[in-house]
From TrEMBL:
Reactions performed catalytically: tRNA(Trp) + L-tryptophan + ATP = L-tryptophyl-tRNA(Trp) + AMP + diphosphate + H(+)
Classification via InterPro entries: aa-tRNA-synth_I_CS (IPR001412), aa-tRNA-synth_Ic (IPR002305), Rossmann-like_a/b/a_fold (IPR014729), Trp-tRNA-ligase (IPR002306), Trp-tRNA-ligase_bac-type (IPR024109), Trp-tRNA_synthetase (IPR050203)
Gene3D superfamilies xrefs: HUPs, Tyrosyl-Transfer RNA Synthetase
One Gene Ontology term of the molecular function aspect: tryptophan-tRNA ligase activity
Name of protein: Tryptophan--tRNA ligase
Gene designation: trpS
Residues binding ATP: R8, P9, T10, G16, N17, G144, K145, D146, I183
Subunit record text: Homodimer.
PROSITE patterns: AA_TRNA_LIGASE_I
Length: 325
């Protein structure tokens, strides 16, 4: 089975990115051929600082390594290093109706969020994502729930291409985590946790213990004192219980019981401790990797070489089928 996924180098990674995507990747690298990308071209579709992009790419490579991805078991590389991604995205655009791109939830949400920056790249994001996935003959794409719609569109595009020009692409399926597919913002539990929403809404994988404690204690919760998992009526507390459950391994029912006659503050204090302990390892590994510039470059270069040969094979086939050889 071939697996592909990627993350935008747009800043600090948070526990939502970890639980929705990376945690699945770590399991998958043991049983599938995995290709994990740092999708820098996607990062340019929302406001960004060119002077910070290279640092963000390097930091994301460190996250991949610190989280436990093993470059001996999977390929990882930077998207813009392989020109086939943009070439295929263009070609896929010629067979994709405009209406399908306009109805994508991410396009609508990000257009609302960045009114001054509604660029064509944002609209075409799913085409580039489809190219990323289809170039590697991907069977499965492990992502959080917010990206499900894009993977479904990719499948549709692959099917349309194969019907029109002859079979080239596999039709990929989406892989959502069993739990944690959508971790909510700490400041607004009705919205998903997001890197670009400001640091108070998320816990970064590298936050210091005192920051973790401060952010968890300041989490927006719900009226009342009852600690009960009910995402509709109690979105704030349910989000905290879900995070607690995944990091501690304790069933939610047991947590509800343990905190039955205790207040929200008790739950928050205990969760902060769990997070501080769980994320301690990331911080240590990051410190070590920060000193290993040459190694990180080598890992990415090696990944680029492997990915490039896979991408070139698919592209040769696409070009032939579309009549541009
Ligand atoms: N809150 C979340 N819960 C579960 N999974 C999540 N993902 C993102 N947020 C959550 C998953 O993380 C992967 C990487 O996402 P991305 O950086 O490529 O883009 P994104 O979905 O736009 O992530 P952010 O954090 O919201 O970043 P910004 O603020 O830059 O847009 C994906 O698999 C995603 O599903």
């Amino acid at each position: 089975m071939r697996v592909f996924s990627g993350i935008r180098p747009t800043g600090e990674l948070h526990i939502g990115n970890y639980l929705g995507a990376i945690r699945q990747w770590i399991e998958l690298q043991e049983k599938a051929e995995c290709v994990f990308c740092i999708v820098d071209l996607h990062a340019m579709t929302t406001p960004y600082k060119p002077g910070e992009l290279q640092k963000n790419i390097r930091d994301l490579a460190i996250v991949y390594l610190a989280a436990g991805l093993d470059p001996e078991k999977c390929i990882f590389f930077v998207q813009s290093e392989i020109k086939e991604h943009t070439e295929l995205a263009w070609l896929l655009g010629t067979i994709t109706p405009l209406g399908e791109l306009k109805r994508m939830t991410q396009f609508k949400e990000k257009s609302k969020k960045h009114l001054e920056y509604i660029n064509a790249g944002l609209l075409n994001y799913p085409l580039l994502m489809a190219a990323d996935i289809l170039l590697y003959q991907t069977d499965a794409v492990p992502v959080g729930k917010d990206q499900k719609q894009h993977v479904e569109l990719t499948k549709e595009i692959a099917r349309r291409f194969n019907n029109k020009f002859g079979k080239v692409f596999k039709e990929p399926k989406v892989l959502l985590p069993k739990v944690g597919e959508k971790i909510m913002s700490l400041q607004n539990p009705k919205k998903k946790m997001s890197k670009t929403d400001g640091p108070h809404g998320y816990i970064s994988l590298f936050d210091a213990p005192e920051e973790i404690k401060k952010k968890i204690m300041a989490t927006v919760t719900d009226p009342g004192r009852n600690i009960r998992y009910d995402p509709l009526k109690k979105p704030g507390i349910s989000n905290l219980l879900m995070i607690y459950h995944i990091f501690s391994g304790e069933p939610i029912k047991k947590l509800e019981n343990d905190f039955k006659n205790k207040g929200y503050a008790e739950l928050k204090k205990s969760l902060a401790k769990i997070l501080i302990d769980s994320l301690g390892l990331f911080r240590e590994k990051k410190k070590e990797l920060d000193q290993r510039e040459v190694y990180i470059k080598e890992v990415l270069d090696r990944g680029t070489k492997k990915a490039r040969s896979l991408a070139a094979l698919t592209m040769e086939n696409v070009r032939k089928k579309m009549g541009i050889f």
